[in-house]
Amino acid sequence: MSSAFDFEPKPRRASVAVDVGGVIVGGGAPVAVQSMTNTDTADVDATVAQVAALYRAGSELVRITVDRDESAAAVPKIRERLLRLGMDVPLVGDFHYIGHKLLADHPACAEALAKYRINPGNVGFKDKKDKQFAEIIEMAMRYDKPVRIGVNWGSLDQELLTRLMDDNKADGSPMTAQQVTRETIVQSALISAELAEELGLPRNRIILSAKVSGVQDLIAVYAMLASRSDHALHLGLTEAGMGTKGIVASSASLGILMQQGIGDTIRISLTPEPGGDRTREVQVAQELLQVMGFRQFVPVVAACPGCGRTTSTVFQELAQKIEEDIRASMPVWREKYPGVEALKVAVMGCIVNGPGESKHADIGISLPGTGETPAAPVFVDGQKAMTLRGPKIAEEFQLLVSDYIEK
Ligand code: SF4
Asked: Where does [4Fe-4S] cluster bind (predicted)?
């Protein structure tokens, strides 16, 4: 018989820990948050600015595109500029087709990067003699860098797919075309990892990913990978989409996998809206880990949804402002006040649940709803500490929150 216990998160799947420029991925380390720039890497100023923004937002690893000589030449300059800004953020080079050549021709790039991402779909892996694959693995060994073998079904190895399709047909088609595709993705990652190890790359230098764009496919593919290897796994739904759809699809798939103990680092790939903020994907990744109780990044701001009892938008605006202020202050607070991320702030719309929720928070306010006295009780550490009145309730509460955190 099932019990409530069955719904608890499963223990983390045992995986081999990989050191990526000082950030440990796998081996039970906290699930790392990562993201990727969308600047032209050859544009050093723009790339430094975006990596810095992603790092400040909380991205623990940042991937950059290395697609040609100009971008490879820019990588050491980007790394140097970031270090001068005090940002020792591990940079991951995203290579396709000619990564082996770029790494060989640009040793400073090979050195500056903390990890190389390679795609078995476009550097061959058919046998050990495959030059491109062997060369990139040799570079990783020479510079003592880990690699991520990142399969993506948009660039899946067609030869392997055809072979598995033919094998399936010869066996009387026990698998559907969708199942064969999933199997191809998984095998592509596993065969490449095996070859990398045969070439001499240690197991603790290999991370695997297998990105697809469908939620059910992603869950199936990672469940298969997790059961057939102990490599650290990078999770991400590719082409997740824009806005709400991308956030929901990524959260649904990654949330289910992490609940099963699968996943050592995550990236939420959101298509940026025109002029949109690239750091949003970092915020979504952090929030996903935080709401599931796996990591704590920022103090929680609990706010009620509001209803007909709320007379104005004051409380929604206050909750939003408080959340934005806290997030903006976190880079400084994190260093100054260790443990600050465990705090809880409540902003509630009326007396029904306001005082109760506020008492459960470290600091909370219950704003006056329809027909209530225009007064807002504030609770600190579970006790009513004061009542705010007048037109400046929001500003005064914001100051109280800052004071509380600083104390
Ligand atoms: Fe509505 Fe009050 Fe509940 Fe907020 S706390 S949702 S305003 S009843």
From this structure: 304, 307, 350, 357
Do residues 37 and 50 touch, judged by C-beta distance below 8 A? Answer: yes
Contact 151, 210 (CB under 8 A): yes
What is the ipTM score, two decimals? 0.98
Judge contact between 367 and 347, C-beta under 8 A: yes
Q: Is 281 annotated as a binding residue?
A: no
pTM: 0.90
**351 C-alpha vs ligand 1 centroid, how far in Å?**
7
- Where does residue 261 rank: exposed (0-12), middle (13-18), buried (19+ CB within 10 A)? middle
CA-based radius of gyration for the chain = 24
Q: 116 Cβ partners below 8 Å, 6+ apart?
A: 92, 93, 95, 99, 103, 136, 139, 140, 145, 146, 147, 148
Query: Binding residue per annotation — 109?
Result: no
Sheet strand arrangement including 383-389: 300-303, 344-348, 363-366, 375-380, 383-389
Q: Considering the chain, what percentage of its residues have pLDDT values greater than 90?
A: 66
Whose Cα sits closest to atom 5 in ligand 1? 353
- Tokens read off for 376: 């807002």
Q: How far is the CA of 329 from the centre of ligand 1 (A)?
A: 28
Pick the more confident residue, 232 or 331. Answer: 232
270: three-class secondary structure by DSSP: coil
If you count them, how many residues does the chain have? Answer: 407
Determine the residue type at 231: H
Q: Which atom of ligand 1 is nearest to the CA of 369?
A: 7
d(CA 142, CA 171): 43
pLDDT at residue number 318: 83
Helices (H), 120-208: 131-142, 158-170, 177-198
From the alpha carbon of 305, which atom of ligand 1 is closest? 6
Give residues (CB < 6 A) around ligand 1: 304-307, 309-310, 348-350, 352-354, 369
pLDDT surpasses 60 at 4: no
Q: What is the pLDDT of residues 282-326, one digit of tens each?
A: 999 999 999 999 999 988 888 888 888 886 677 778 888 888 888
Closest by CA position to 208, among listed 114, 117, 96, 89: 117
- How many helices and strands in the chain, by DSSP H and E? 13, 15
Average pLDDT over residues 123-144: 80
Tokens 């750091």 belong to 279
